[in-house]
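Protocol step 4 of 6: structure prediction from sequence.
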Amino acid sequence: MRRDITGWYSGRLNMDMPLVAYGHYGPPVLMLPTAAADFLEYERFHLIDSVKWYLETGKAKVYSINSVNRQALLNDRASAWEKIEWLKRYDGYITEEVLPLIRKDCRDANAKPIVVGISLGAYLAGNLFFRHPDLLGGAILLSGSYDIRGYMDGFHNDDVFFNNPVEYLTHLDDNYYLPTLRHGGRKIVIFSGQGAYEAPDRSQQLSGILSQKGIPHWLDIWGRDVNHDWPWWRQAMPYYFGKLFG
């Protein structure tokens, strides 16, 4: 199986940003790491192994990148304004740097990756997808929370609003993004367990907003034994790859 590591210095983020690609062929999948982890996290925790069959048979190919969570939401020394500024720059890094690389690597100028995230990475993936459904083919969101106001210490402005999915989706009513989400064939999976450290109410909240807006999606709540931990995510990910990629 192909495993290529590349990277470049991102002027937007003022740091080197590595990227790893797995697999030669198939629809692209972009993975964003959990918490303060790095681009190799999914490999270290054997999640890549869990979907290896799809990568080796050309059903899908995966790209995994770093996040800026250490500088942004998880940075207790940063002001709320600084945290949001990092999120805005990260959005630009993905849309203006990572997605063009993926399109070039896929030799498809119209390639629309499915974006994947777990835990805090699910927020990042969901926010990226719902802000740019025209650039992405869908989202697999595992064990996430989609409201960042708890990180903002009471601060709120337009930038917080437009990076907070439970807020901007509730008010979404336009002639471009909403029809794309409703009728564009995007695949949206929202997963949660009900065991230790899971918060199914957060996934249900997002699902409820999407339902009110007529946006097709799949809310999948697993059992009370399903904890917020890698063994369950290693079961969930190949299950959803099977549903989406056959």
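Step 5 (inspection) to follow. The beta strands are 3-10, 15-22, 28-32, 61-65, 114-118, 138-142, 187-192, 218-221.
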